[in-house]
Design brief:
The chain has 472 residues and is mostly helical. The protein is built from 14 helices and four strands. A two-stranded antiparallel sheet has the order 1-2. Strands 3-4 form a two-stranded antiparallel ribbon. A hairpin with a 4-residue loop joins strand 3 and strand 4. It is globular, with a radius of gyration of 27 Å.
């Protein structure tokens, strides 16, 4: 190659070297900033998130999206009225015991995800513990006496594995079009004391746990696109997202910090990473709380007249009193009388077909709970999904009971137990976000800022790399 050709080649290299170097600097800078943004919550934005703004303190302002109450009102009502009532209510004998089928075959894939901790297991109720009216009047048979110790090492006696067709006046066995029914196999139903089996971290992680949520979101509840105009599809996604966020809050709030010493506490890093740094997840949790609260208030006439009979007159009177305080709270009726307006949904010519489609999707979600490989996770998953299905049934499967000819609301006892316990779970999650959220956000963001500032050479390394490209 001649001298002129070499000089021409060098000029071409010089011509493209500076633009390429600039491109390298831009790309590397973007990579650095995006990595930092992924660790810092206030850089997270979601194009489908609520228009209500997230303040620097972590406190949410304005109306909860698609609801009829603002965040400040919800927080005040929850802290002052609803949460204390619900805490007392779920501790009563009537709402303490939940009937569930724990051992089920997954209808979608083989069960391969048993968790690694003893805290996954559930202690079933001794036969003489749960209320007599919850049992059938005949054929009350327990398990063999060699099944008295559960995996957690707590005392466990025989349990009644039969179901009650008519446990007491006011409750009936009726199908819910929104949920997958367990009651077809009476022999495998058992009662569980929810107070002795709290929802918390169990060690259930890995591919099996991820597959449950992946199946829920990808196959049955995909996130709506930015141009989605169907409010019903948005509602389903937000309900599941809100429930998911609430479950994550309880796992982070009661976490096994040191297995060797059996030390439990709050995992604020997990709380921040899973929920608090994602504003849309917090908003969806508030939305789900108000949705379920609306179902409870809509069923006021039914719930007020129901008999909460456990055979303990003093406790039953207390339960009835707490129910009425919840349903007729002056502060709730004044500040947030209609938490969610369900009348705007299922309108138009395609409403009935759309309802059937979304019912099918939610039934699939409820059936997926049989695929959860951790016994305690399965218990709380089934309870909360049934509670959410009961809320959907109340709001969308019956009409106005005051109108003649409309379908009359009928609920199973287990549906009401699930509904109230779900409302309590959501109430606790909302309270944790309100009480702990701002401090956790500040603490985590300070730690992230310190970690970032301790690496002053990052930008320098970017520039050095670009310079080395120039001189090649």
């Amino acid at each position: 190659m001649g001298k002129g050709a070499i000089e021409e080649s060098e000029r071409k290299r010089q011509k493209w070297r500076w633009p390429l170097a600039a491109l390298v600097v831009v790309l590397l800078a973007v990579a650095v900033s995006s990595r930092t943004a992924s660790n810092v919550g206030f850089f997270f934005t979601d194009r489908n998130s609520c228009s209500c703004s997230l303040q620097g303190s972590g406190k949410y302002k304005g109306m909860v999206e698609d609801c009829c109450c603002d965040y400040e009102t919800v927080d005040n009502l929850n802290s002052e009225v609803l949460n204390p009532l619900l805490q007392d209510l779920v501790a009563t004998p009537f709402f303490r015991y939940f009937k569930v089928k724990l051992w089920c075959d997954c209808p979608f894939w083989p069960d391969d995800g048993m968790c690694r901790l003893r805290d996954c297991s559930v202690c079933e109720c001794p036969e003489n513990e749960f209320p007599e009216p919850f049992k059938r009047p005949y054929n009350i048979a327990g398990l063999p006496s060699d099944n008295l110790i559960c995996q957690e090492g707590k005392p466990q006696a025989a349990v009644d594995r039969t179901i009650d067709n008519i446990a007491f006046r006011g409750w009936v066995e009726t199908n819910n079009p929104w949920t997958h029914e367990d009651d077809t196999d009476n022999g495998e139903m058992t009662y569980v004391n929810l107070q002795l089996n709290p929802e918390r971290f169990t060690g259930y992680t890995g591919p099996s746990a991820r597959r449950i949520w992946d199946s829920i979101y990808s196959e049955n509840c995909p996130k709506y696109s930015s141009g989605e105009t169907c409010p019903e599809k948005k509602v389903l996604y937000k309900l599941i997202s809100g429930l998911h966020s609430s479950i994550s809050m309880h796992i982070a709030g009661d976490y096994l910090l040191d297995e060797s010493r059996n030390q439990w506490g709050q995992n604020i890093e997990l709380m921040y990473d899973r929920i608090l740094r994602h504003p849309d997840r917090v908003r969806n949790m508030y939305f789900t709380y108000l949705f379920v609260l609306r179902a409870v208030t809509k069923a006021t006439a039914y719930l007020e007249q129901a008999e909460y009979d456990t055979g303990n007159n003093a406790e039953d009177l207390k339960t009835q009193s707490l129910i009425k305080q919840l349903l007729y709270s002056p502060k709730l009726q004044t500040a947030c009388p209609v938490p969610f307006d369900e009348a705007k949904l299922w309108q138009g010519q395609g409403g009935p077909e759309l309802k059937q489609q979304i019912q099918k999707q939610f039934r699939n979600i409820s059936a997926l709970m049989d695929c959860v490989g951790c016994e305690k996770c399965r218990l709380w998953g089934k309870l909360q999904v049934q509670g959410l299905g009961t809320a959907l049934k109340i709001l969308f499967s019956v009409g106005n009971q005051d109108k003649e000819g409309d379908q009359t609301l009928q609920l199973q006892r287990n549906e009401v137990i699930a509904l109230v316990n779900l409302l309590n779970r959501l109430s606790e999650s909302v309270k944790m976000v309100h009480d702990m959220g701002p401090d956790v956000e500040r603490l985590m963001e300070d730690q992230i800022a310190k970690a970032t500032s301790s690496k002053p050479g990052r930008l320098r390394r970017v520039l050095d790399l670009a310079f080395s490209f120039l001189v090649k």
